[in-house]
Structure formats: C-alpha cells, structure tokens
Automatic annotation (TrEMBL):
Residues 3-128 form the ApaG domain. It comes from Olleya aquimaris. GO terms for biological process: error-free translesion synthesis. This is ApaG protein. Pfam families: DUF525 (PF04379). Coiled coil: none annotated.
Length: 128
C-alpha cells in the first residue's frame, strides 16, 4: 500500500492485476486500484476533480482528467473517509500512475490540490 498526506488529507492506494485481454488485436493488461481518501484535517472538504498521469513500460503516457471520482464529488467532514475502486488498461505488464485531486476547503472556501502518490502497476507473471 502507498500512502501520502497533503494538507491533512491522507490518500491510501492498493493495486491489483485483473488480467489480460485483446482489444483491437493488441494485448492489454488490466489493473485495478482502490483509493481511500481520509480527512485528517479540522475542516470539511469536497473533492471536485481528478487529474491522472498514467505511464507504461513502453513509454506511453496518458493524461486523464475530469470531475469527481466515479461520478461522485464526496464531501468529507473531519475524521471521515471515502473509498472507491477503479482501474486502467496498459499496453505493457508494468506501469505507474500518479496525480492529484482538486478539492475545496469549506471553512476557508479556498481550493487546493491533494497529491496522489505514484503507485506501481505490475503483472505478477512478469516479475522475476
């Protein structure tokens, strides 16, 4: 598990390999990840957007950005957490993801970014 705290918001990431399949005559490697966002600050916050950079071992880089996470914009009071699962496809058995969440602090009304730490994606069969 990878973890990081930014401005009192703790991000924890767990990953797993889901399998391989062919799409458009190319092999794809499917990875899942579970993220827990925990508000360890004294203020209520809301997650408004996400920004991902996804890398694979073949030097492909993909940027994914959008509102919320899996269709939600969770509000977290102090001590609360939100967990969700998602996934990505790579064209190689190794890769990594990193990014940030755009959030707003309800007490100060200020927007801020919370770092999503870099986490590795690897298919177990490809490891020595």
């Amino acid at each position: 598990m990878v973890q990081q705290v930014t401005r009192g918001i703790k991000i924890s990431v767990e990953t797993n390999f889901e399998g391989t399949f062919y799409k458009n005559y190319k092999i794809n490697f499917a990875f899942g990840y579970k993220i827990t966002i925990e508000n360890q600050s004294k203020d209520s916050v809301q997650l408004n957007a996400r920004h991902w950079t996804i890398f694979d071992a073949l030097n492909h880089k993909e940027i994914v950005a959008g509102e919320g996470v899996i269709g939600k914009k969770p509000v977290l009071k102090p001590g609360e957490s939100h967990t969700y699962s998602s996934g990505c496809l790579l064209t190689s058995p190794f890769g990594a993801m990193k990014g940030y969440y755009s959030m707003v602090n309800f007490t100060t009304t200020k927007k801020f970014n919370v770092t999503i730490p870099t986490f590795k994606l690897s298919a177990p069969f490809a490891l020595n």
